[in-house]
Amino acid sequence: MSAVIEAEKLHFAYARVPVLEGVSFTVEQGDYVGIIGPNGGGKTTLLKVLLGLENGQGSIKLFGQPLKKFNDWHKIGYLAQKSPVSQSRFPVSAEEVVLMGLSDRRGSGVSVGELKQVHAAMQQTHTREYAGRIFHDLSIGQQQRVLLARALVSQPELLILDEPSTALDPESREMFFNLLGELNARRGVTILLITHDTGEVGKYISKFMYIDKTLVFYGTKEEFCHSQAVAEKLGAFAQHTIDHLHNHGHCPLGCLCGESK
Ligand code: ADP
């Protein structure tokens, strides 16, 4: 199994206020990592540092290449928390938004090959039926799936998503997570996902990462439920709740560890 991300001793500060301290971990090909932790704990910053959008200290390798030398960006799809296209009122069609994901395009024309890639990504995310509609006229759930198609259009091997489900209704959320689960299980896409929906995604995720400035926990979801470090962070009450829910077969992590009855 090969490493997709190798992070070693990452440090980052905004105006000298430390946000990440000594964060080290490896993400292997095919992992589906759920990143959780308190608000302001540094999760979004960690993703930005990994992608070189913020300059941290420490060592980062993507697909075995040092970040500074890495230029295979088509291998990585990124769905940011606030996408500029969602905030702009420019009247672009859903199809044009997906086309923007082909970062190595040259010139203003669209080749047949590019169109085929766009259609394939829209097929995958069940968005083809509104390809010609103005992006802003779509529902939030539809927009989010179009943005996922944009992240997928270059057929990335690694997908990085920052709280993609926050604005979604329960039905769209389930559809969205099923889609990610399918991409990971069937196509072997490695996924790094910041989420608060631990219950919903728990069944798909293979590893949890708990970030609160430092890396509090990184391991399988089964290990997560029994982690002393997590129990100390979450407090005795939360740990008790998790245990209680486990015993009634409703682990909030959707975890399938042997303790569930
Ligand atoms: P999380 O994603 O876990 O909620 P963030 O990475 O967004 O955490 O933020 C970590 C800390 O960094 C927070 O205290 C936040 O206020 C601060 N922060 C985030 N972005 C900036 C910025 N651009 N400038 C200054 N401080 C920031």
Molecular structure report:
The protein has 261 residues and is of the alpha/beta class. Helix content is 35%, strand content 25%. The chain has nine helices and ten strands. The strands form two sheets. Strands 6-7-8-3-9-10 form a six-stranded mixed sheet, with helices on both faces. A hairpin with a 1-residue loop joins strand 9 and strand 10 (214-220). Helix 4 crosses helix 5 (140-152). The longest helix is centred in the last third of the chain and has 20 residues, at 228-247. It is globular, with a radius of gyration of 19 Å. The chain starts with a strand and ends in a 14-residue tail after the last helix.
Q: SSE layout and pairings?
A:
Elements: E1 3-14, E2 17-28, E3 32-36, H1 43-50, E4 57-62, E5 65-66, E6 76-79, H2 84-87, H3 94-99, H4 112-124, H5 140-152, E7 158-162, H6 170-187, E8 190-194, H7 198-201, E9 207-212, E10 214-220, H8 221-225, H9 228-247
Parallel strand pairs: 3-8, 3-9, 6-7, 7-8
Antiparallel strand pairs: 1-2, 1-4, 4-5, 9-10
Helix pairs in contact: 4-5
Bound molecules: adenosine-5'-diphosphate.
Q: Give, in spatial order, the strands making up the sheet with the most strands.
A: 6-7-8-3-9-10
List of distinct ligands in this structure:
adenosine-5'-diphosphate
- The number of distinct helices, counting runs of at least 4 residues, comes to 9
Radius of gyration: 19 Å
* Mean pLDDT over the full residue set: 85
Outline the biggest β-sheet: 6 strands, mixed
Beta-strand portion reads 15-25%
How many strand segments? 10
- How does the helix and strand content classify structurally? alpha/beta
- Separation of the first and last Cα atoms: 33 Å
